[in-house]
Amino acid sequence: MDSISICVALFLTYFKNDIWDFASTLSIKKYILCYICVNVVITGSTICTSQGVTTCQQCLSVHPSCAWCSQEFGKGGSSLSRCDLKQNLLNGGCSKAALEFPSSTLTVLEDAPLSDKALGTAETVTQIKPQKIRMTLRPGDTKRFTVSVKQVEDYPVDLYYLMDLSFSMKDDLDRLYSLGNELAVAMGRTTSNLRMGFGAFVDKTTSPYMYMYPPEAVTNPFKLLKIEKCQPQFGFKNVLSLTDKVARFTEEVGKQQVSRNRDAPEGGLDAVIQAVVCKEKIGWRPDASHLLVFTTDAKTHIALDGRIAGIVQPNDGQCYLDNNNLYNKSTVLDYPSLALLTEKMSENNINLIFAVTSYVVPLYKGYSQLIPGTTVGTLSGDSGNVIQLIEEAYAKIRSKVELETLGVPEELNLSFNATCLNGEVIRGLKSCTGLKIGDTVSFSVEAQLRSCPKEKSRTFTIKPLGFKDSLEVTVDFACSCNCEAQANSPLCSNGNGTYECGVCQCHQGRLGPRCECSVEDYSPSDDVNCIPKPGSPICNGRGDCLCGQCSCHANEFGQVWGKYCECDDFNCLRFKGALCSDNGKCSCGFCQCDAGWKGENCNCTTRTDTCMSSIGLLCSGRGNCECGVCQCTQPGAYGATCQKCPTCPDSCTIKKKCVECQHFKRGQYTEDNSCNRICKDEIKLVEELVFNDRNAVNCSYKDENDCVVHFQYYEDESGKSILFVVKEPECPKGPDILVVLLSVAGAILLLGLIGLLIWKLLITIHDRREFTKFEEERAKAKWDTANNPLYKGATSTFTNVAYKGN
């Protein structure tokens, strides 16, 4: 690679996420970078030679294009820098065998095709590809690979129903008993391989969570209420392990009795952590979707609440179910933290569904934002809608694919770009929504090594949330050189240093290229070699000149290096007091941003998922995503994702789909089960539309039945969206049958009469024409007076010859 190539590489590295910004608004720092690039071409210097590195390992860390020459040049040999571009070193006489230039590579080790249907054993079902890759990365270098994910059809489902059995849930328990078979039938529509289990919880069995007085209250918490049909308080109980016998589920639910605890919050998180980690006891299958349905009508205790009862030992996330399937560490371990729950759920591929009453929905929605892979549904007073809730939650889970990473080294940055169903590449996003079973989505992953870890190799995992399938990525860090070190080498002034990769690493108190100079051998004449330019201080005032070389001072703020101590790792732009915003590394005055960040001080994220609206459009299609924040460009648009815009022409189009799915239970959002996710509006039915506010927008559309639906879109002062929908659409009235029949009959008679009149008129005209023609011909005729020889007169006289009368 020549000087121009490294300039281009520098440019692309710095501006890789900011090309258009470079074209429009160049900052001073970027002008400086361009000046450096021009200087590269004119003077022949490169980023490799300008950093003042002295060892092979330092050279490899400067830039992925830098190479090191370990060849021995001897006296009078080449004076070129050992750290330079590969081609420059070869042109300078370095042999290929002496070059240290490890390159970044990527090899796919396992790449089985994606499965179409869940047939056969778990090993034959593949929902992610590739399955195993190996990379070699140099510091500062990146490698990209693509991960494809597909949710196969008819995948097995394990459904574990975890229920609060405090007294307020008695009607819910009775309702669940009657719905057991219906639940199995409903889930059977999504999979032919279903197993169901049941667990129950109340709270820790110690004061102040439990009634301890009178003593009889320990065995019968309802003693004072004179209710006999109950059970003693318990922490968590695995009533029924996962089974494909649905009748047993209904049977065990019917046997349960409610209990009673003393305080309002319940111990549900204790039960959740045990249901998650006790894989063998619960019966979770490795080759199935794991659904954990958590039902309650109360708040729940969290970590540190156990201190009220003197329980200070943190929850360790281990399984503690005894032979009776009861949690036996309830009074020993504190409640688990949300972080511990998140970790264990990820390890065991659990999808948690909070089915809670409306009173506590806001609390559990807050939990779901902190625990990936969870959904929240509003449970009716007697759990009558639990089947619909579970179906909708499962459909929501199956309609989303989100990647998670496990065990990624701190020195490695990962950035994601998602390509979902529409083929659009969304930067910074590692999830896709609105999917159907059988759809395939892909994610582009870029791995960048910021610095060298202590280990030579590390392995981490990328997996879809809630899936057992995963991609195993092994990274080999190309941070060291292969050239051998020779301790006390004669090449280093008779053993005053270690000869490694062509240079001497001098012993304490020795300096010089060959360790030929002692600290005591100071000569003022050597100072000229330590001055960068006339008038400048020696070693830029940040070091001492010893034997013609700058020995940089130690600095409390960081490291100082370079031929003239011109470089450091602490003089870069800051943001809110943080060097390079804590999102990059400072190197010789420039911030080298981590993957996923850009800008002079690395304070601008390249993520776009924070700009994604609920309808799946970037900034709702009304703005641009800049540094992870939507800048609304559509007049009248506002909100975190420009989602609010009463005056936008497309508001009616978007809200029309919500009216269709929320009120009429039909349309696109109903078919793809995205109504609850996208439409957060409150529907109010009215007889007619009235003027609510100047920002209200009246809309109308014609539905599939050719009826006109009228509604009004309005946002109150709190930003809540309200849709006022006219109850009855305006539908065209049907035809009057009698009128139609009479009209048709009248039309037929009228047409017949008209036909007769036309026929009569034509006949009359024809006769008149014939008569006129006859008269004309008669008038033209000329007659003679001759007698007709055939004519005989009317009188004939005959004589009778025999008559002899007078």
UniProtKB/TrEMBL annotation:
Species: Mastacembelus armatus
A single GO cellular-component term on record: lamellipodium membrane
GO BP term (any one): cell-matrix adhesion
Primary location recorded for the protein, binned into one broad class: other
Domain Integrin beta subunit cytoplasmic: 760-806
Start and end residues of each Integrin beta subunit tail domain: 652-736
Name this polypeptide is given: Integrin beta
Taxon lineage: Eukaryota, Metazoa, Chordata, Craniata, Vertebrata
InterPro entries on file: EGF_extracell (IPR013111), EGF_integrin_1 (IPR040622), EGF_integrin_2 (IPR057073), Integrin_beta_N (IPR033760), Integrin_bsu (IPR015812), Integrin_bsu_cyt_dom (IPR014836), Integrin_bsu_tail (IPR012896), Integrin_bsu_tail_dom_sf (IPR036349)
Domain Integrin beta subunit VWA residues, every copy: 55-481
